[in-house]
Amino acid sequence: MRMRMLTVRQPWAALLVTGIKDVENRSWVTPYRGRLLIHAGLKTDAEGFELMEELGVALDGPLLRGAIVGSVNLVEIRQDSTSPWARPGENHWLVTDARPAVTPMAAVGALGLRPAPAGWTKAFAA
């Protein structure tokens, strides 16, 4: 199956690719499982910063937007995760094996899962 990309607002995108956040909350499900590129959208989510403060979580460096910032492995989707990142009433996309991009790559985001853009592997080349 071809690599897929998910657009996520900051700070959620950075939290996912650094391995701090182990759940992505979505209103929908997908049959897709496996490696998933995380694209940081152009918008931010104030709720994310509030929850970070509540949980005592900090991120280093600037929060990039409009770029592929890393990848995670989507292993399961359920509605009963006990993670502090899981939002009640949402589908909890359980992710593991976070990998920040070596060189974040500019890309256009979109709703839903979409095919990875051409040349995406350059973001992970050392």
What is the gist of this entry?
This protein has 126 residues and is mostly beta strands. It contains 2 helices and 6 strands; from the N terminus they run E-H-E-E-H-E-E-E.
What distinguishing features does this structure have?
126 residues; mainly beta; Archaeosine Trna-guanine Transglycosylase, Chain: A, domain 4; 2 helices; ASCH_domain; ASCH domain-containing protein; PUA-like_sf
Give structural notes.
This protein has one domain (4-118): Hypothetical protein (Archaeosine Trna-guanine Transglycosylase, Chain: A, domain 4, Roll), CATH 2.30.130.30. The chain contains two helices and six strands, in the order βαββαβββ. The protein is mainly beta and 126 residues long. The longest helix is centred in the middle third of the chain and has 10 residues, at 46-55.
Instruction: Average the pLDDT over all residues and give the rounded result.
Output: 95
Oligomer: single chain
Please name the CATH architecture: Roll
The total domain count is 1
Q: Rounded to an integer, what's the Rg over CA atoms?
A: 14 Å
- CATH topology (fold) name: Archaeosine Trna-guanine Transglycosylase, Chain: A, domain 4
Number of strands: 6
Quick one: CATH superfamily? Hypothetical protein
How many distinct helices? Answer: 2
**What is the H/E string?**
EHEEHEEE
Gap from first CA to last CA: 24 Å
- The portion of residues assigned to helices is 10-25%
> How would you classify the helix and strand content by structural class?
mainly beta
Arrangement of strands in the largest sheet = 2-5-4-3-1-6
Q: What is the global morphology?
A: globular
Main sheet characteristics = 6 strands, mixed
Strand content: 35-45%
Name of the level-1 CATH class: Mainly Beta
The low-pLDDT segments are none
Domain ASCH: 6-78
InterPro entries: ASCH_domain (IPR007374), PUA-like_sf (IPR015947)
Protein name: ASCH domain-containing protein
